[in-house]
Amino acid sequence: MIEELLQAKKLIQQAVDARDTEMREIALKIHANPELAFNEYKAVHWLTEPLKKADFQVEMGIAGLETAFRASWSGGAGGPIIAFLAEYDALPEIGHACGHNLIGTAAVGAALALKDAFPDFPGTIEVFGTPAEEDGGGKIIMCEKGVFDHVDAAMLCHPRQSNMVMRGGLACVDTTLKFYGKQAHASSEPEKGISALEALINSYVAINSLRQFFKQDVRIHGIISRGGDAANVVPDYCEAKFMFRAPTVKELHVVREKVYAAARHCTEAVGARFEMSEGLIYAERNNNKYLSGLFKDNLTLMGLEVTNPPERGGIGSSDIGNVGQVTATIHPYIRIGDVTPHTPEFRDAAGSEGGMTGLNQAAKALAMTAYDLCYDPDSLRQVRDEFEKWKSSHEAIEAVTQF
Description:
Blueprint: H1 2-18, H2 20-32, H3 41-53, E1 57-60, E2 69-74, E3 81-86, H4 100-117, E4 124-129, H5 138-144, E5 153-155, E6 158-160, E7 171-180, H6 196-210, E8 219-226, E9 237-246, H7 249-269, E10 273-278, H8 289-301, H9 320-323, E11 328-330, E12 333-335, H10 344-350, H11 353-375, H12 377-402
Parallel strand pairs: 3-4, 3-5, 5-11, 6-12
Antiparallel strand pairs: 1-2, 2-4, 7-9, 7-10, 8-9
């Protein structure tokens, strides 16, 4: 049995290697042509083209998003539905400094390799193109539309500076704070004006003073995106952009309430008016431990060292957290070099030989983990049981909280 499993995984690895040149070309084209949230038209074309050629059923524009897609293939009747999640949006100014060119291509490579190696695969593989992870929350919109409700397990593999399988993620929301005052000449008639900038600055200071009263894993970071138009004019409109993070969505609500109350009171103190405009809420990450263990075993099978995530801090946010609220989900990491995400150095690594090696390894681990779920009913049962227990517990907590 073990020998048979090892032989099957060897075939998967060989199938990924056979697609390596093709996958590298796709990843490098996406890397050289960075596209921002909801505008990833080239990336979507390059990712879906080989799936169509391999006779995957490709649906474009799912969940009402032009740059979202679903590509599905079933090797035989019945069996679980396993989703590979593809990301491909870039960051402003610094392009693929989060390596989404590798994430999207690894998902496609894993799906193609499984079909190549096992034409009678006992399950369904679905590749979901999920736009706007960095800014917009494509997966959140897709969750709200029920896109992942039928999926038994979902996974992606993110580039990083080390191999990890259980790194968490904070709940998060971005917001624009808008301040409205009244223009006046700043020298001759300042008394006739109401400064939106004073309202903003006072609010910024008040928000900053709240930090000491939040838990250590709460994060608040922001910028002044508009501070006025001329130094000799009392500003009538100013704005600041913030991101708030907390361990859970429930705790995030507390942070939001305190921040908005501080901004509102500071604004009223100078006679100005305050509004806020929020983005979608990214949920905290719900890593499936058993599924993570399968992925870790497959990394180890390839001879890769897996490190533990930091016990405190060192985590960001992702809209895959919302997917983890509706089905069993993992978000492991693959090493591409000694670089930190969201930097020019990481962007360069995502297009380097190290990035291409990580792409190959990620595709193999994804494909082998999907194989485990479809060929071993006990593994699938363990994954699903863990998720259902979490869901029941989560719903019970929510019910008590609401009561």
